[in-house]
UniProtKB/TrEMBL annotation, chain A:
Residues 534-593, 636-694 form the CBS domain. GO terms for biological process: chloride transmembrane transport; transepithelial chloride transport. One of its GO terms (cellular component) is chloride channel complex. InterPro entries: CBS_dom (IPR000644), CBS_dom_sf (IPR046342), Cl-channel/antiporter (IPR051280), Cl-channel_core (IPR014743), ClC (IPR001807). The keyword Membrane applies. The keyword Transmembrane helix applies. It is a multi-pass membrane protein. The lineage of its organism: Eukaryota, Metazoa, Chordata, Tunicata, Ascidiacea. It holds the Pfam family CBS. This is Chloride channel protein. It comes from Ciona intestinalis (Transparent sea squirt).
From TrEMBL, chain B:
InterPro entries: Osteopetrosis-assoc_TM_1 (IPR019172). It comes from Ciona intestinalis. This is Osteopetrosis-associated transmembrane protein 1. GO terms for cellular component: cytosol. Pfam families: OSTMP1. It comes from the Eukaryota.
Length: 694, 254
């Protein structure tokens, strides 16, 4: 199924516009701004709720476990805190997975692939529904505070998009709530623009990166873009970022101090590096690309296994529960094993003493016994001697596999933080090596830049985003001087990774067999013509068909297209009508025999039934009505996009990609309809070619 | 007069080897005529106070005790500085010693020194160990808080105990010093508990942190009194069990 990003300029549409005065038009334009502001503010608030809930829950959890550990180190009962830790994690994570599996399966994962599909024009069921938002928010709170190797940043993007879709429609079908506002925006095209804004707001709230948010929307939905939209989206993402800022400043008891950007705050970087360090950074980028590719390859195998064998719902829940238990156990055992102690005073976030002497802390606990964001910060900013290389090695290896295993579970889970954490860990190791080789040089004393570059390389090697990721990282570090190394590293990591496999989001889209269109048409396909790609034979309708004809066309499962070409009695092409329009016409019994023209059906009727259309089965058509006629002429789109049958594939592709089309009518020399091309046809063709190649 | 001074400075810069008697290089007559005497006295007071403070701090840097020992010196630095800053004519800022001492050159060495002194005090968090009690003439008196006194007393008792009981025993490397551990356990735990409760309130100055660290280091590293025995069996059993569960699940569905 696909979305309609093309306006249907039929007679009704023209009629409505005639009635509209220029002040009405301005009011609609102004409403767009209001909606964008609302989206920004609401996204910020949701981010605040998520953030505070996770902070509080984690603090409580850590406190309980810490007390148990302190008690049990003395009394030799360490299995108690382990069990306690496992139990807390399992309970929290079970909530997340039950919600995800039974309420909104689409909320699983980071949500970025789903939003990518939506913006690309693929209809993902339930992706922007209210229950998805609820599942996403509660799920991410539970899974992050439940100690899984996940982050809360990716889900934020999805949450922002759902909010945008909800607010712009001015109603919620789940709540049976219907306001008078924003009725004009009830179609796919308008909704998509607002979802762009929502995704941008989500990124901006997650990383404190408003420009990165705008660029994220641009990167993922680049085909449908205009300048006015950019400006609105920028407003939206700035508002979202500063709403988060404002509420977090209140939470941290500095109301009005707007310096708490982002769900993750990278802290301050010195911003200095020497030119001759660039080769080291580039080597790190290569390693990041390799490591990211390995991550994706392992995750691919796991995902294939899950799709194939783990089909029963309770198995999915059970798997999540087991992963949560294993995560807790690994963390505990590694802390338990770690012989490294450091004296207090360098002020780490947690000071878990464990077996250390009084006044010392266990270094592994700095990494494992904290929310992941704090671990990333420790890896970035802790001074040179704070974490021993061995500790980091023992930390990063299990964490890599754990993160790999966790992504793709049936819980809302972001990938940014785990990737950053892995990258920062090995980046810091590289820094340690450099420091070991040149122990006395000033430039080799600062490990934070190596940790940052490692984090960037790992993330770039995993997700393969380009411009938006660079800008997000620059904004999150707040340091423009790192832009050159970050850019170079992300570029190289992407190239190295692309040599082996796809980015993890594309990989998951691909595994779910979603007909998403890439940026560019398939290579070397100019000689492919429309007639090879199009779907035939094509089902056409007359301008004034019989009801029984429509019913038989609609009920035929073989031609379950979304749109049907209309031809007149001479077989000349007249326009296209959508399946949903036909359904509505049948429902409202717009039959010629009833004298329907006296009170014509309005455009708002079409809008009101958006986006949940009813299936054919709910429409009752009596025997008598079967013989009635429907006059489709006012409703059909008289000038849809068409193409000649000898058009090349790249040309068709660009039409689809640039206009967000859903279907394209193919005409022959005599302007007769010979076929239809849908989004899926292109995707199938591309896919078939690939299989031939293999 | 100016010309000569400049000339001489030039010579000084150009030929390092040439040494002039001090009196000819620094033309004191100018500065005396420009800076009022009262200001020089204030400056002199500040300088003396600062020197005393620095001297005190450095002598008490190891073992770290300067919060406790140098509070008087710190206050006198504060006072002498306050005298300088308050010495100005509100209506005309150029009159008075504040602008003369603090702002008449571009290095502002007095300000730098003052900031250095306060930064030592702030970074060591010394203020939290004292109570500021206002006195009759508007200034403050610094009195150590009760917790500070108690904690210091307890730490001293522990260290004394360490000293007493380790004398009679031979130093054994890497082994628990049974006498010290048994005899001082109560004192140590007492001090440690109090320290932890004060720490959670955030009322620790560097004196307390350092002496407690020293005590803890002795307790742990010198006498090896904290020996927590890991309990292996249950942990390994649980770990194996937890790790086996997903494997079972995967094998089961496969």
């Amino acid at each position: 199924q696909a979305l309609d990003y093309d306006t249907i300029e039929n007679e009704l549409h023209g009629e409505e516009e005639r009635k509209m005065s220029s002040s009405d038009w301005k009011w609609i334009q102004f409403q767009r701004w209001i909606i964008c502001m609302l989206i920004g503010i609401m996204t910020g608030i949701v981010a605040v709720v998520i953030n505070i809930c996770i902070l509080e829950l984690t603090a409580v959890k850590m406190h309980v476990v810490e007390q148990a550990i302190i008690h049990c180190v003395k009394n030799r009962c360490l299995y108690v805190p382990l069990l306690l830790w496992i139990a807390i994690n399992v309970v929290l994570v079970t909530v997340a997975s039950l919600l995800t599996v039974f309420v909104a399966p689409v909320a699983a994962g980071s949500g970025i692939p789903q939003i990518k599909c939506f913006l690309n024009g693929v209809k993902v069921p339930n992706v922007v529904r209210f229950k998805t938002l609820v599942t996403k928010v509660i799920g991410v709170i539970a899974s992050v505070s439940g100690g899984l190797a996940v982050g809360k940043e990716g889900p934020m993007i999805h949450s922002g998009s759902v909010l945008a879709a909800g607010i712009s429609q001015g109603r919620s079908i789940s709540f049976n709530l219907n306001t008078r506002f924003f009725k004009h925006f009830r179609n796919d095209r308008e909704k998509r623009d607002f979802v762009c804004a929502g995704a941008a707001a989500g990124v901006s709230a997650a990383f404190g990166a408003p420009v990165g948010g705008v660029l994220f929307s641009l990167e993922e939905a680049a085909s449908f873009w205009n300048q006015a939209l950019t400006w609105r989206i920028f407003l939206c993402s700035i508002l979202s970022s500063y709403t988060l800022n404002f509420f977090m400043s209140i939470y941290h008891h500095h109301p009005g101090d707007l310096a708490y950007p982002g769900l993750i705050n990278f802290g301050k970087f010195s911003g200095s590096y020497e030119g001759f360090e660039l080769p080291i950074f580039l080597l790190m980028a290569v390693f990041g690309g390799l490591s990211g590719a390995a991550f994706n390859a392992i995750n691919h195998k796991i995902t294939v296994f899950r799709l194939k064998y783990l089909k029963a719902k309770y198995f999915k829940v059970l798997e999540v529960v087991f992963v949560a238990a294993v995560s807790a156990t690994i963390a505990f055992v590694l802390i338990y094993w770690n012989p490294e102690c450091k004296p207090l005073g360098q002020d780490p976030y947690v000071r878990l003493q464990f077996f250390c002497n009084d006044g010392e802390y266990n270094t592994m606990a700095v990494l494992f016994f904290t929310p992941p964001e704090e671990s990333v910060k420790s890896l970035f900013h802790d001074p040179l001697g704070a974490l021993q290389p061995l500790t980091i090695v023992i930390f990063v290896l299990p964490y890599f596999f754990l993160a790999c295993w966790t992504y793709g579970l049936q819980v809302p889970s972001g990938l940014f933080i785990p990737s950053l954490l892995i990258g920062a860990a090995w980046g810091r190791l590289v820094g340690n090596c450099v420091n070991f080789i040149w122990p006395d040089d000033i430039w080799a004393q600062d490990l934070s830049k190596y940790a940052l570059i490692g984090a960037a390389a790992q993330l770039g090697g995993t997700v393969r985003m380009t411009i938006s990721l660079t800008v997000i990282l620059i904004e999150a570090t707040g340091n423009i001087t790192y832009s050159l190394p970050l850019m170079a590293v992300l570029l190289l990591a992407k190239w190295v990774g692309d040599y082996f496999n796809h980015g993890i989001y594309d990989m998951h889209i691909h595994l779910n067999k979603v007909p998403i269109l890439p940026w560019e048409p398939p290579a070397l396909s100019t000689n492919i013509q429309a007639r090879e790609v199009m779907g035939t034979p094509v089902v056409t309708l007359r301008t004034v068909p019989l009801v029984s004809d429509i019913c038989s066309v609609l009920s035929d499962p073989r031609n379950c297209h979304s749109g049907y070409p209309i031809t007149d009695s001479e077989g000349k092409f007249r326009g296209v009508i959508l399946r949903t329009q036909l359904l509505i016409l049948l429902k409202h019994k717009e039959f010629v025999e009833r004298g329907g023209s006296s009170e014509r059906i309005k455009l708002s009727v079409f809008r009101d039934s958006y986006p949940r259309y009813f299936p054919l089965s709910v429409i009752n058509v009596s025997e008598g009505e079967q013989q009635c006629h429907v006059d489709l002429r006012p409703f059909l789109n008289p000038s849809p996009y068409t193409i000649q049958e000898n058009a090349s594939l790249p040309r068709i592709f660009r039409l689809f990609r640039a206009l967000g089309l859903r279907h394209l009518v193919v005409l022959n020399d005599e302007y007769k309809v010979v076929g239809m091309i849908s989004r899926k046809d292109i995707w199938k063709w591309e896919h078939k070619e690939k299989q031939h190649d293999d | 007069c100016y010309v000569i001074a400049h000339h001489k400075y030039e010579q000084l810069i150009n030929s390092h080897a040439v040494k002039y008697p001090q009196s000819t290089i620094i033309s004191t007559s100018i500065s005396i005529s420009q800076t009022p005497n009262i200001c020089l006295i204030e400056l002199d007071n500040f300088s003396t106070a600062t020197v005393l403070f620095m001297n005190c701090t450095l002598t008490n840097a190891r073992p770290l005790q300067y919060c406790e020992k140098c509070v008087t010196e710190y206050i006198s630095v504060q006072n002498s500085y306050n005298i300088i800053t308050n010495d100005e004519d509100k209506s005309n800022e150029t009159v008075g010693c504040k602008s003369e001492i603090l702002r008449s050159d571009n290095i502002q060495v007095v300000l730098m020194t003052y900031e250095f002194v306060t930064s030592i005090w702030k970074k060591s968090n010394c203020d939290v160990c004292f109570e500021k009690i206002p006195t009759v003439n508007g200034s403050f008196r610094y009195v150590p808080t009760n917790t500070t006194k108690t904690l210091l007393r307890k730490i001293k008792a522990v260290l004394l105990c360490f000293g007493n009981y380790s004398k009679n025993t031979l130093p054994v490397v890497h082994l628990k010093n049974e006498t010290v551990c048994n005899m001082c356990k109560n004192l140590y735990c007492d001090a440690n508990d109090l320290y932890q409760s004060v720490e959670s309130q955030g009322n620790l100055c560097s004196d307390l942190i350092d002496s407690m660290n020293y005590t803890r280091k002795n307790w742990g590293n010198t006498y090896h009194c904290t020996v927590a025995l890991p309990d292996e069996g249950e942990i390994w059993g649980l770990t194996a069990l937890v790790c086996a569960m997903p494997v079972l699940l995967y094998v089961g569905v496969w």
